[in-house]
Amino acid sequence: MAYTIEQIAASLGARAFGETTLEISGVAEPADAGPQDLALAMKPEYAAGLAQGAARAAVVWDGADWQALGLEAAIVAPRPRYVMSGLTALLDPGQGWDAGIHPSAVIHATADLAPDVSVGPLAVIGRGARIGAGSTIGPQCFVGADARIGAGAFLREGVRIGARVQIGDRFIAQPGSVVGGDGFSYVTPETSNVEQARATLGDMGDTSAQSWTRIHSLGSVSIGDDVELGANCTVDRGTIRDTRIGHGTKIDNLVMIGHNVIIGNDCLLCGLVGIAGSTRIGNNVVLAGKTGVSDNIFIGDNVITGGGTIVLSNIPSGRMMLGYPAMKMETTVEVFKGFRRLKRLFEDVSELKKTVTQSNHKT
Amino acid sequence: MAYTIEQIAASLGARAFGETTLEISGVAEPADAGPQDLALAMKPEYAAGLAQGAARAAVVWDGADWQALGLEAAIVAPRPRYVMSGLTALLDPGQGWDAGIHPSAVIHATADLAPDVSVGPLAVIGRGARIGAGSTIGPQCFVGADARIGAGAFLREGVRIGARVQIGDRFIAQPGSVVGGDGFSYVTPETSNVEQARATLGDMGDTSAQSWTRIHSLGSVSIGDDVELGANCTVDRGTIRDTRIGHGTKIDNLVMIGHNVIIGNDCLLCGLVGIAGSTRIGNNVVLAGKTGVSDNIFIGDNVITGGGTIVLSNIPSGRMMLGYPAMKMETTVEVFKGFRRLKRLFEDVSELKKTVTQSNHKT
Amino acid sequence: MAYTIEQIAASLGARAFGETTLEISGVAEPADAGPQDLALAMKPEYAAGLAQGAARAAVVWDGADWQALGLEAAIVAPRPRYVMSGLTALLDPGQGWDAGIHPSAVIHATADLAPDVSVGPLAVIGRGARIGAGSTIGPQCFVGADARIGAGAFLREGVRIGARVQIGDRFIAQPGSVVGGDGFSYVTPETSNVEQARATLGDMGDTSAQSWTRIHSLGSVSIGDDVELGANCTVDRGTIRDTRIGHGTKIDNLVMIGHNVIIGNDCLLCGLVGIAGSTRIGNNVVLAGKTGVSDNIFIGDNVITGGGTIVLSNIPSGRMMLGYPAMKMETTVEVFKGFRRLKRLFEDVSELKKTVTQSNHKT
């Protein structure tokens, strides 16, 4: 697909300059750009790259002298990062799958698919599943019994949706993700070592061998509109009620959401985040990569964590957190600085003790 | 399915009171319960919820005045958490899959399945695989050559069992889990940087480029009875002998078990736990979410770790551990307290140094 | 398959002694070895094991008196660990899959497979995909549109390769791994809380609710020769250009490689490692299990991290790093020692403060 600079600018709500009838067929970093590419030079430091590449047109920073940069056409946008969204949506070549229902897909007679739904090769759609208009169920996907997926879904290859999962509109899931596995919940006939340890913080008393009995998951998973799920994630079913994910929340790869968890709207959960059972997370929360959150706690709205943060207790709304254990970011930054001077601190105190002892003797 | 209060109480070994012929068809949290639901009100704090909901019957705490709570019937159990196990097993609606062998499954002529085994659509059963009575192999599962799965297994969609893996009875695996991937084991023709670093802790000498040669995994994986495996886990094959998981061990989602690892009986491994190659773990060990364990070490019986613990060396039996590096829980709790006062400590020492220098000068 | 001691020694470039026509059919640990097994007794501490087992032949340490150990034949190798590579390659029984193209595989008419490629049951090969000579695409694998896989690949069951991914020769991937999921990249119309937090480190100003708009991934993934990928890994596509992995790099299970990441040659990435978007990693880098690396940073050649390291900023070449935050290994080792004495340090300083105050008063 090719678009003119004018068309692209219009679709982005941005201003176009110069030869706006120039056609481009892709985007590229400035130094890699060929004559058919729109170069992305949204900051002055990309100017040198433009000279190395062969772009005739570019998206440039506000105030750039695009003619001096050797360009024939330019697009200027007020918020360049936001322009990336429209540009990449326009030029996305997609996965190249055939539309329609592949004859090798196994679709239960009672499943209810909107007329324009596509189902890829070797996908399985279970008893009573419902799939909304315009959705694509990718190759080798699985949609379980009585699951409901809204309109405009796009499931990449090998996504698994368990029985009775409810998903809103415009759901996107990357390959291998699992929604609706059983919760991890076990109990012992007698009070377990873990319960005792939690109660006493350390004294385990009689640690006799104990076997675990399963608590089955009777709930399922409810997911709002405009949610995205990364590759190889897992979202567990609730025990009695559903595990819930709000509207607009985006989840990266290899993220684990435990049973009974409630996640609000418009959150970002980055790669390898884990959220243990029954924890509640507010709206607009951002958890950086490898953040872990304990079970049965509460994280308020607008909380942000830094990479690797381990959250062991509740966090009030609006806090920025970092570290193990999670503390306010400025506290952890101080602690991290302290680490580098810790050896010296021990030496100073040791020295002080000697000095003070001596001066006391002198006195 | 509907059960009377009397039937439910009998199946749980609990006492029933009031209108024990009342039929219920599901369970619910007290505030969400409809008139057909058994409300779960096992602690006094749920009393208010009962008033909000419409439950006519509930499981209540020992000593509750169930009539005053507006209930027509009640079940009282000595250990409410344990009751959850029986209740949820009784009321589990399952995955809604058809029984029998789906015609789209690809089953090798030499595979040996007990007569009542179910195999879902598009599953693959390899050469010489054996599957015991009453087992269900879910949709799109894979069972490799000469693998053996015992009686009563339940494999959710897309589980992969590699060649020669041996699994006991009543195995449960959640979607996307992998048993029997190759171990991560490589060697360089000369002593590698890593070996040298381990030997000298830091001095890497000549760090010339080195390529890695694969050590193949000749062993497989042996798993005991009553083991459960979460979604998207990975359990690697052993190098010479099998990687081993004991009876009754339960493993949560996205857990990684490295090659040659030996795990005992009745352990709980929570989400995103990783256990590196050749490490041995005792019986009744509980590793909380995101715990990591180094290779080639030993963890004794009844050890419990807290969330995010990184274990870098052996742990004797019975210890409760927390932190990075893993230390006794009470030590780490002190360290975590210290973090919050660390900035002040540096200031105090700085102040002391000034004071002591001055008083020495005065003297 | 059986080999003589002589054949094995020759294939390993090692020396053989004694009854070198003895045939062996497997390898085993010394105590487990039967008369058909080659025992692996590469260190003197395995001598006792040999006496317990029934091995007639063994690989022994340099200088071992193999006859005194009761063996009829022995192989001596200069670097025993390296011998493991050749031995296990020779004796690997493989996965037991049938060669050829299984009739249940769904292969697009436009896909281009070398004549000797094997494709397992229920695999899907997409439009325009190309697969090189001698490659095996395992059961239930997916290869997307216009993807290219070189010669000699071995894809275990359920591997997913997205559209336009380019992979070199001799690629090995374990079950369930995903190459070519979409990058995790979103933007808000206004400056987001996260951007603001990064800029101000803590002051979030007006934290009004914001929704996330997707930045599509137009790039794909490029992987060099001799790369291996563990089970259930995820490698994301780049935004504009490809995410890249160099030659000879080996990646363990459940590893996440974010969008736009560039990884050099001959790296080892152990289990549960996560590398956030746009980070660059040099050659011969070894990241131990559970290492996390922030986005948009740089790690130099020959860097080694210890288990659980969280890398928040650039690392120069040749460094050994450990801890959260990542610091030089010797610094972190000192910090870890300090943790154990931290409570005592607080007490010492408290005591000093009292003493100094008193002596000041006395003076």
Assign the structural class of chain A, choosing from mainly alpha, mainly beta, alpha/beta, alpha+beta, or little secondary structure. alpha/beta
Number of helices of chain A: 5
Which chains make the largest contact?
A: A-B, 83 and 84 residues
Helix content of chain A: 10-25%
Any idea what the CATH architecture of the domain at 3-91 in chain A is? Answer: 3-Layer(aba) Sandwich
Number of strands of chain A: 39
- Gyration radius of chain A, to the nearest Å? 27 Å
What is the terminal-to-terminal distance of chain A? 90 Å
**Strand neighbour order, sheet with most strands of chain A:** 10-13-16-19-24-27-30-33-36-38-39
CATH structural class of the domain at 3-91 in chain A? Alpha Beta
Q: What fraction strand of chain A?
A: 25-35%
Would you tell me which CATH topology of the domain at 3-91 in chain A applies? Udp-n-acetylmuramoylalanyl-d-glutamate--2,6- Diaminopimelate Ligase, Chain: A, domain 1
Shape of chain A: flat
Largest beta-sheet details of chain A: 11 strands, mixed
Oligomer: homotrimer
CATH superfamily of the domain at 3-91 in chain A: MurE/MurF, N-terminal domain
pLDDT averaged over residues of chain A: 93
Weakly predicted, low-confidence segments of chain A: none
Active site (chains A, B, C): 259
EC number (chains A, B, C): 2.3.1.191
GO molecular function (chains A, B, C): N-acyltransferase activity; UDP-3-O-[(3R)-3-hydroxyacyl]-glucosamine N-acyltransferase activity
Catalytic activity (chains A, B, C): a UDP-3-O-[(3R)-3-hydroxyacyl]-alpha-D-glucosamine + a (3R)-hydroxyacyl-[ACP] = a UDP-2-N,3-O-bis[(3R)-3-hydroxyacyl]-alpha-D-glucosamine + holo-[ACP] + H(+)
